[in-house]
Amino acid sequence: MSKVTLNASTSREKGSSNSRRLRSAGSIPGVVYGPGVSPLPISVDAKSFRTAVSGDQGLNSMIELDADGKKFLVMAREIQRHPVRGTVSHIDFQVVDPKSTVIAEVPLHMVGDAVEVRHADWEIDQQMFSLEIKTRPDTIPTHIDVDISDLKVGDSIRVSDIVLPEGVEPAVDHTLSVVTTRAGRTVKTAGGPETAAV
Protein backbone atom coordinates (compact mmCIF):
# COMPACT_ATOMS: atom_id res chain seq x y z
CA MET A 1 0.00 0.00 0.00
CA SER A 2 1.37 3.38 -0.95
CA LYS A 3 1.37 6.30 1.46
CA VAL A 4 -0.07 9.75 0.85
CA THR A 5 1.17 12.92 2.55
CA LEU A 6 -1.12 15.31 4.35
CA ASN A 7 -0.02 18.53 6.04
CA ALA A 8 -1.53 19.50 9.39
CA SER A 9 -1.37 22.52 11.66
CA THR A 10 -0.86 22.17 15.40
CA SER A 11 -1.80 25.77 16.18
CA ARG A 12 -5.55 25.29 16.48
CA GLU A 13 -7.23 26.26 19.72
CA LYS A 14 -9.80 24.06 21.41
CA GLY A 15 -13.44 25.02 21.69
CA SER A 16 -16.53 24.85 19.49
CA SER A 17 -16.28 28.49 18.34
CA ASN A 18 -12.69 27.98 17.16
CA SER A 19 -13.71 24.77 15.39
CA ARG A 20 -16.50 26.61 13.58
CA ARG A 21 -14.04 29.26 12.43
CA LEU A 22 -11.71 26.56 11.09
CA ARG A 23 -14.51 24.90 9.14
CA SER A 24 -15.62 28.23 7.70
CA ALA A 25 -12.04 28.75 6.49
CA GLY A 26 -11.98 25.36 4.75
CA SER A 27 -10.16 23.38 7.44
CA ILE A 28 -11.20 20.37 9.54
CA PRO A 29 -10.32 20.08 13.23
CA GLY A 30 -8.96 16.77 14.39
CA VAL A 31 -6.73 14.94 16.82
CA VAL A 32 -3.78 12.57 16.49
CA TYR A 33 -3.65 9.72 19.00
CA GLY A 34 -2.08 6.31 19.44
CA PRO A 35 0.29 4.23 21.55
CA GLY A 36 2.98 6.42 23.06
CA VAL A 37 1.47 9.58 21.58
CA SER A 38 -0.28 12.18 23.72
CA PRO A 39 -3.49 13.36 22.00
CA LEU A 40 -2.45 16.18 19.67
CA PRO A 41 -5.08 18.69 18.45
CA ILE A 42 -4.56 19.54 14.78
CA SER A 43 -6.37 20.88 11.74
CA VAL A 44 -6.10 19.82 8.10
CA ASP A 45 -7.21 21.42 4.86
CA ALA A 46 -10.56 19.91 3.83
CA LYS A 47 -9.70 19.66 0.12
CA SER A 48 -6.31 18.09 0.87
CA PHE A 49 -7.96 15.50 3.13
CA ARG A 50 -10.49 14.57 0.44
CA THR A 51 -7.61 14.12 -2.01
CA ALA A 52 -5.69 11.97 0.48
CA VAL A 53 -8.57 9.50 0.83
CA SER A 54 -9.79 9.59 -2.78
CA GLY A 55 -7.64 6.67 -3.94
CA ASP A 56 -8.57 3.00 -4.14
CA GLN A 57 -8.01 2.49 -0.41
CA GLY A 58 -10.41 5.27 0.57
CA LEU A 59 -10.56 5.81 4.32
CA ASN A 60 -8.19 2.86 4.78
CA SER A 61 -5.36 4.84 3.20
CA MET A 62 -2.10 5.10 5.10
CA ILE A 63 -1.32 8.79 5.55
CA GLU A 64 2.00 10.37 6.39
CA LEU A 65 0.77 13.29 8.47
CA ASP A 66 3.20 16.20 8.65
CA ALA A 67 2.15 18.22 11.70
CA ASP A 68 4.36 21.30 11.51
CA GLY A 69 7.44 19.17 10.89
CA LYS A 70 6.52 16.28 13.19
CA LYS A 71 5.57 13.27 11.11
CA PHE A 72 3.15 10.48 12.00
CA LEU A 73 2.02 7.42 10.04
CA VAL A 74 -1.74 7.46 10.56
CA MET A 75 -5.12 6.26 9.37
CA ALA A 76 -8.37 8.24 9.56
CA ARG A 77 -10.39 6.22 12.04
CA GLU A 78 -13.26 8.26 13.49
CA ILE A 79 -14.91 10.74 11.16
CA GLN A 80 -17.74 12.98 12.33
CA ARG A 81 -20.03 14.60 9.78
CA HIS A 82 -22.50 17.46 9.83
CA PRO A 83 -25.97 15.92 10.38
CA VAL A 84 -27.55 17.87 7.51
CA ARG A 85 -24.81 18.80 5.03
CA GLY A 86 -22.81 15.61 5.47
CA THR A 87 -19.52 17.50 5.42
CA VAL A 88 -16.67 16.25 7.62
CA SER A 89 -16.62 18.16 10.91
CA HIS A 90 -13.92 16.30 12.87
CA ILE A 91 -11.34 13.57 12.24
CA ASP A 92 -9.50 11.26 14.62
CA PHE A 93 -6.16 10.13 13.16
CA GLN A 94 -4.76 6.96 14.71
CA VAL A 95 -1.00 6.44 14.68
CA VAL A 96 -0.32 2.96 13.25
CA ASP A 97 2.61 0.57 13.10
CA PRO A 98 2.88 -0.88 9.57
CA LYS A 99 3.97 -4.21 11.07
CA SER A 100 1.10 -4.47 13.57
CA THR A 101 -2.49 -5.63 13.03
CA VAL A 102 -5.27 -3.08 12.64
CA ILE A 103 -9.04 -3.35 12.24
CA ALA A 104 -10.43 -2.05 8.95
CA GLU A 105 -13.79 -2.11 7.19
CA VAL A 106 -13.66 -3.23 3.55
CA PRO A 107 -16.48 -3.22 0.93
CA LEU A 108 -17.89 -6.56 -0.22
CA HIS A 109 -18.54 -7.05 -3.96
CA MET A 110 -20.77 -9.86 -5.20
CA VAL A 111 -19.38 -11.56 -8.31
CA GLY A 112 -20.67 -14.35 -10.52
CA ASP A 113 -24.18 -15.42 -11.52
CA ALA A 114 -26.30 -17.67 -9.27
CA VAL A 115 -27.91 -19.42 -12.25
CA GLU A 116 -29.90 -22.00 -10.25
CA VAL A 117 -31.35 -19.34 -7.98
CA ARG A 118 -32.29 -17.14 -10.90
CA HIS A 119 -33.91 -19.98 -12.86
CA ALA A 120 -36.02 -20.88 -9.82
CA ASP A 121 -37.33 -17.29 -9.70
CA TRP A 122 -35.66 -16.78 -6.34
CA GLU A 123 -33.61 -13.74 -5.37
CA ILE A 124 -30.21 -13.00 -3.89
CA ASP A 125 -30.35 -11.09 -0.61
CA GLN A 126 -27.06 -9.40 0.26
CA GLN A 127 -27.10 -8.84 4.02
CA MET A 128 -23.57 -7.52 4.53
CA PHE A 129 -22.07 -4.83 2.31
CA SER A 130 -18.77 -4.47 4.13
CA LEU A 131 -16.63 -6.65 6.37
CA GLU A 132 -14.47 -5.77 9.35
CA ILE A 133 -11.09 -7.46 8.99
CA LYS A 134 -7.82 -7.78 10.88
CA THR A 135 -4.57 -7.35 8.97
CA ARG A 136 -1.51 -5.14 8.66
CA PRO A 137 -2.10 -1.62 7.31
CA ASP A 138 -0.12 -2.37 4.16
CA THR A 139 -2.20 -5.47 3.29
CA ILE A 140 -5.71 -4.00 3.58
CA PRO A 141 -7.53 -4.94 0.35
CA THR A 142 -9.51 -2.32 -1.56
CA HIS A 143 -12.48 -4.70 -1.59
CA ILE A 144 -13.34 -8.38 -1.11
CA ASP A 145 -15.14 -10.45 -3.76
CA VAL A 146 -17.96 -12.79 -2.72
CA ASP A 147 -18.56 -15.43 -5.42
CA ILE A 148 -22.25 -16.36 -5.63
CA SER A 149 -21.94 -18.65 -8.68
CA ASP A 150 -22.54 -21.88 -6.73
CA LEU A 151 -25.51 -20.66 -4.70
CA LYS A 152 -28.62 -22.82 -4.81
CA VAL A 153 -32.15 -22.22 -3.58
CA GLY A 154 -32.10 -22.04 0.20
CA ASP A 155 -28.34 -21.62 0.39
CA SER A 156 -26.44 -18.88 2.16
CA ILE A 157 -22.88 -17.62 2.32
CA ARG A 158 -21.41 -16.93 5.74
CA VAL A 159 -18.34 -14.97 6.76
CA SER A 160 -16.44 -18.25 7.15
CA ASP A 161 -17.14 -19.07 3.47
CA ILE A 162 -15.47 -15.95 2.08
CA VAL A 163 -12.05 -16.46 0.50
CA LEU A 164 -9.80 -13.80 2.01
CA PRO A 165 -6.33 -12.71 0.86
CA GLU A 166 -3.33 -14.10 2.70
CA GLY A 167 -2.78 -12.40 6.04
CA VAL A 168 -6.37 -11.14 6.27
CA GLU A 169 -8.79 -12.46 8.91
CA PRO A 170 -12.41 -11.58 9.75
CA ALA A 171 -12.87 -9.40 12.82
CA VAL A 172 -16.53 -10.41 13.24
CA ASP A 173 -18.48 -13.57 14.06
CA HIS A 174 -17.62 -16.16 11.40
CA THR A 175 -21.21 -17.49 11.38
CA LEU A 176 -22.81 -14.22 10.28
CA SER A 177 -24.71 -14.40 6.98
CA VAL A 178 -23.30 -12.37 4.12
CA VAL A 179 -25.64 -13.50 1.34
CA THR A 180 -28.86 -15.53 1.50
CA THR A 181 -31.52 -16.60 -0.99
CA ARG A 182 -35.22 -15.92 -0.76
CA ALA A 183 -38.37 -16.61 -2.74
CA GLY A 184 -39.11 -14.02 -5.37
CA ARG A 185 -42.37 -12.16 -5.82
CA THR A 186 -43.78 -15.06 -7.73
CA VAL A 187 -43.07 -18.71 -7.03
CA LYS A 188 -44.02 -21.42 -9.53
CA THR A 189 -45.70 -24.37 -7.82
CA ALA A 190 -45.58 -27.81 -9.36
CA GLY A 191 -48.71 -28.49 -11.38
CA GLY A 192 -50.31 -25.17 -10.48
CA PRO A 193 -50.35 -21.48 -11.32
CA GLU A 194 -47.88 -18.92 -10.04
CA THR A 195 -48.59 -17.86 -6.49
CA ALA A 196 -47.35 -14.82 -4.64
CA ALA A 197 -44.50 -15.52 -2.27
CA VAL A 198 -45.28 -15.15 1.41
What is the fold's blueprint, element by element?
Elements: E1 3-9, H1 16-24, E2 27-34, E3 37-45, H2 46-52, E4 62-67, E5 70-81, E6 88-95, E7 102-111, H3 115-119, E8 122-126, E9 130-135, E10 144-147, E11 156-158, E12 169-170, E13 177-183, E14 186-188, E15 194-196
Parallel strand pairs: 1-4, 2-6, 7-10
Antiparallel strand pairs: 1-3, 2-3, 4-5, 5-6, 7-9, 8-13, 9-12, 11-13, 14-15
CATH class of the largest domain: Mainly Beta
Helix content: 10-25%
- Biggest sheet strand order reads 1-3-2-6-5-4
Largest sheet: 6 strands, mixed, barrel
Q: Give the helix tally.
A: 3
Structural class: mainly beta
CATH architecture of the largest domain: Beta Barrel
SSE ordering? EHEEHEEEEHEEEEEEEE
Q: What is the CA–CA distance across the termini? A: 48 Å
The unreliable regions are 188-198
Total number of beta strands: 15
Beta-strand fraction estimate: over 45%
Radius of gyration (Å): 22 Å
Taking all residues together, what is the mean pLDDT? 88
Shape: elongated
